[in-house]
Amino acid sequence: MRRFDEAGIRPKTRFGQNFLIDLNLLQLLFESADVTDRDVVLEVGTGTGGLTALLAQAAARVITLEVDREMFQLAGEELAGLENIRMIRRDVLKNKNRFAPEVLTAIEEELAATEADARFKLAANLPYNVATPIVSNLLLLDRPPVSMTVTIQKELADRMAANPSTKDYGALSVWVQCQCAVEIVRIMPPSVFFPRPKVESAIVKITLEPDRRAAIPDLNFLHTTLRALFLHRRKFLRSVTLSAFKNRLTKPEVDAVLSDQGMSGMLRAEALTVEQLLSLCEALRQQLLAQEQ
Fold first, then answer.
1. Do residues 84 and 39 make contact, with C-beta atoms less than 8 angstroms apart?
2. Which parts of the chain have pLDDT scores under 70?
3. Domains of the chain (ranges, CATH numbers)
4. Looking at residue 54, what is its pLDDT?
5. Neighbours of 71 (CB within 10 A)
6. Rounded to an integer, what distance in angstroms lies between the CA atom of residue 182 and that of residue 67?
């Protein structure tokens, strides 16, 4: 906070800025990311550069993004002399469904410039307002991070780790868990941030499981279908499936898919396990492919 006062900077709510000021928890975030000199690390939200400096000491390269002009300048002063840091002033997202092209290019360039066995990781105190699309969209990349170690709202962490038939279980839970292991490392009170948020936060580590991801035939189809199936949580499975595939699959075709899967149309999507939803989405995809032949 002293550094903010010296620079005459105040956090901006429109950027979702809540800075982690507990140095012990900052160290825990860094240690949980398990960064080595094989790693190219993406950080979203440079802030004052505290985490950035820790990452730079261990990583091959660090790409750090900051959208706030004043914070970008402040961090640049704090990080001067650390030559393995690439600072970019811009929003990580072009829109909620796409990363900014400059960000993807920077990742590709830094990976290409390191050793052949380089690993891509995300480590960040994520701005609350973009945490969900960042994690979701990174898992759509051809080369996703091998791990994502982030601070996020506890509510979002609970959603990522949720079990079926619970209030937090939804499309995000299935999308993350079908490719990754999710560990909630630490729950954090509002007092460890400046300014204090109104909710609890969590450090979460999301570790890619390559074999599980490789077993998914079409990630884009899965991502889109999961969102559609959970769009109206209280509707029954038959109804939401018909709505999701309106003008593409008939009622008899949807009923046949559900029957083959051993699923009642009177279930809700939230009652299905990750494996059941993967199987259902693939059966629906195969039904569409069969129509095209």
1. no
2. 1-16
3. 2-210 (3.40.50.150), 219-292 (1.10.8.100)
4. 98
5. 24
6. 28
